[in-house]
Write a structure and sequence with these properties.
The chain is an alpha/beta fold. The protein has 12 helices and 8 strands. Helices cover about 40% and strands about 20% of the residues. The longest helix has 23 residues.
Length: about 250
């Protein structure tokens, strides 16, 4: 059965991705992955753009327009559609994803470890500290994959975004965080492909030198997207098309 891993590298701008993601560029050069760049939707803030990535609607359409809006996503998401089709879903992700897709507010004792197939994200390991190491996050994702063999797996890291907010995008810390994510992908992405997963790697928004991402500059709005396999599938040209891409990869209507 078709299966997909969606990797969301929070806060990674397109320029830094091209400079620092050597493994991903190597896959491109070997013809094993395709690459494009997308403009993120406005406003370029995390919670609104998570909802966009999961629903396919712009923030103006789904109505979540700022990071303090803790509602469930008002529109159906890739996770609810997969659940309704009888597929297994999982996520290793920042806790806002749980609030958007499963239950709000996030209650760590209840929601940190989620194993309930009736929920849109049936199996989850959600973290709430922005210093949670990306190495542990990728291990969480692999634990979910080994334990539950999900058809749809979200891997959502915050290391790049955290480094950007603290040091700005024109900093060694930000570039090193991108290099670390690239190294983690080098350790895991080949195993995902071998297990039959199609892999999408992208970002919600970028980052600027001020350590912010609420403006209209290319450093903030241009984000990378990589897609493995499926030469017959067109690469998205807009961030709103990623949810539809996931649906097609999972053979969802």
């Amino acid at each position: 059965m078709a299966s997909c891993v969606l990797v969301l590298l929070d806060g990674l701008n397109a320029t830094t991705a091209r400079l620092c993601m050597g493994f991903m560029v190597a896959l491109e050069q070997a013809g094993k992955i395709r690459h494009t760049e997308l403009h993120c939707e406005m406003p370029p803030l995390s919670r609104p753009l998570y909802a966009t990535l999961f629903s396919g609607k712009t923030p103006a359409e789904h109505g979540i327009l700022h990071n303090e809006d803790t509602r469930l996503c008002p529109s159906p998401t890739i996770f609810s559609r997969a659940r309704d089709a009888g597929l297994v879903t999982a996520a290793a992700a920042w806790y806002w994803v749980s609030e958007l897709c499963n239950a709000t507010p996030f209650i760590p004792a209840r929601d940190r470890l989620t194993h309930s197939p009736s929920l849109p994200i049936g199996h989850g390991l959600f973290y709430s500290s922005d210093t949670y190491p990306d190495t542990e996050l990728f291990r969480d994702a692999e634990s979910l994959r080994y334990s539950h063999a999900p058809h749809l797996l979200l891997v959502h890291s915050m290391g790049i975004d955290t480094a950007g907010h603290r040091h700005g995008s024109d900093s060694r810390a930000y570039r090193d965080a991108a290099r670390e994510a690239d190294g983690l992908l080098a350790r895991t992405l080949p195993a995902w492909i071998a297990a039959g997963y199609t892999v999408i790697v992208t970002a919600d928004h970028g980052m600027n030198a001020d350590g912010s991402h609420n403006d209209i500059t290319d450093n903030v709005r241009l984000v990378p997207l990589w897609l493995t396999g499926h030469e017959e599938v067109h690469l998205p040209t807009a961030q709103t098309q990623i949810a539809g891409l996931v649906d097609r990869l999972l053979n969802l209507d």
